[in-house]
Design a protein that fits this description.
The complex is a heterodimer of chains A (287) and B (291). Chain A has two domains: 211 residues, 3-Layer(aba) Sandwich (Rossmann fold); 65 residues, no CATH class. Chain A contains ten helices and twelve strands. Chain A has a six-stranded mixed sheet, with helices on both faces. A three-stranded antiparallel sheet of chain A has the order 2-1-4, with helices on one face. Chain A has a three-stranded antiparallel sheet with strand order 11-10-12, covered by helices on one side. In chain A, a hairpin with a 5-residue loop joins strand 10 and strand 11. Chain A is globular, with a radius of gyration of 22 Å. With 291 residues, chain B is mainly α. Chain B contains twelve helices and two strands. A two-stranded antiparallel ribbon of chain B has the order 1-2. In chain B, helix 4 runs antiparallel to helix 5, helix 4 runs parallel beside helix 7 and helix 5 runs parallel beside helix 8. Chain B is elongated and about 80 Å long. Classes of the chains: A alpha/beta (287), B mainly alpha (291). The interface between A and B is large, with 52 and 40 residues.
Chain lengths: 287, 291
Amino acid sequence: MTHDAAVQVRDLHKHYGSLHAVDGVDLTIQRGETFALLGPNGAGKSTTIEILEGYRRRTSGVVSVLGTDPDHGDLGWKARLGIVGQSTVESDRATVRDLLTLTRGLYPDPREVDDVIEAVGLEKKAGARCDKLSGGQRRRLDVAMGVIGRPELLFLDEPTTGFDPEARREFWQLVHSLKDGGTTIILTTHYLDEAAELADRVGIITGGRLLDVGAVDEIGGVDARRPVVRWRAADGERRTLVTDTPASVVAEIVAHTGGEPRDLEVIRPSLEDIYLSMISDNAKDAA
Amino acid sequence: MTATLTTSAPILDTRQPSPTPGGVVGRCLRQIRFEVTDYVRHADTLVFTFGFPIIMLAIFTSAFASQGTIPNPSGVGAGLTVGAYYLPGMVAAGLLLSGVQNLAIDIAHEKSDGRLKRWGGTPMSPFVYFAGKIGQVLVTATTQTALLLVVAHFGLGIALPNTAQAWRTFAWVWLLGLTASCLLGIALSALPRSGRSASSVVLPITLVLQFISGVYLQFDGLPTWMQNIASIFPLKWMAQGMRAAFLPDGFQQLEVGQAWHLGQIAIALGVWLVVGLVLSRLTFRWIRRDA
């Protein structure tokens, strides 16, 4: 395996009895890359992530994370990771500052507590007990705990659940700042706009298999992202046309109707549209 | 939208990095401070673990105040008030509660609510984590015993030992009993299947032990079969050791074999310490790891 990749996965399987939660995943994530793993609930996202984090043991396959097999990762290896797990901790009786200060002390080259508190927007809650925070504030604390150690590789498992839109934008800014600093990031999210905003590449997983992996603006192939022109014809009927030349189509419509067409739209499929069509195609194939 | 986000100034790493003081010793001390702070913020623990022996001693002393004294069984020397006779048992119960009950419930909660898993994802070493727990127990149990003795002496007028030998006995029984209790508490934390069931699994165990081990009921008055069962567990030996330290020598006639048996106490507690160490090493996991 090459060592310039942050993560290398070959033929990964995880079986729980007859259930194949992860069923033959191959994946390479380069250093400095932000990779989003997308898929419906129960698709195998979190199982895959937790195997990479060292929390779960795989049934078979080869896994290397920062050059180390996660099943044998020591404390020095863990010091290079940052983990924001899917479930948040609700029962810390420590204050935000005390918890982050203690955690900071575990790492060889950590960030400053005040920097991290500011970056996640918890300045006003620094002296508050963690168990008195709101759900969104607690999630910010989870993110703070994940980045305090200055990780080379950061896992973000549905990090913005419970965030309001403004908090999500602030979080995106933080992730951009981490990316600029060279941090490799593995993200799972149910918000496709978030994946489109943050990720360099995305992988779509369902039923424990990766359907496709590619850059945000390439995934799904050329056909899936052909623009759609919609308008209302003179007879009042709605028309839809998938085309590679939307401008010409619009010009034709104008020439034909001799005026401004009603309810005209030119739509480029979003990541969400592509994702949904891939998941539903896959479900049809399986049925 | 994207442009305004990506061109913003760095929002992390604006301050000069400051070094983290200390190596593993510093980590352990910070962990202990963190754990002690956590302990005092927990109202349940303060009442049912920290305050319990003091509350029970106060109740015993008041409830049995009218019953006069327990005569010295050797026929020589003064007798003891009920409170004075039960004080050593309460000290021993404090060790069991601070070690076994506190840690078993505390760690089971930490396991079920995700805190332990979170530490497992950091470079926290199990050594530092357990140094924090054992340090927490040392600090809180020392305070608990001191408070118990102060209340007993100045509040309830119970005489404390006045020989160096008695305090030496107290010191080693206390330390050995507390260490064994810590390790057994860590081992027992593997038993509850959820945080919610932790108290209902652990409390009956410690409560039954207190009743059959001579903490609340005079040990020589218990049926032999109950004494035999109690002798398997460490609390009986801790209570007996504390009686050896606190009670006049004439009272050893009320013990099994009419003697304090300090050697047996040391062996029994030493064995439990090793059992606790082995069990906690075998059972402890940051998370319930699947196969």
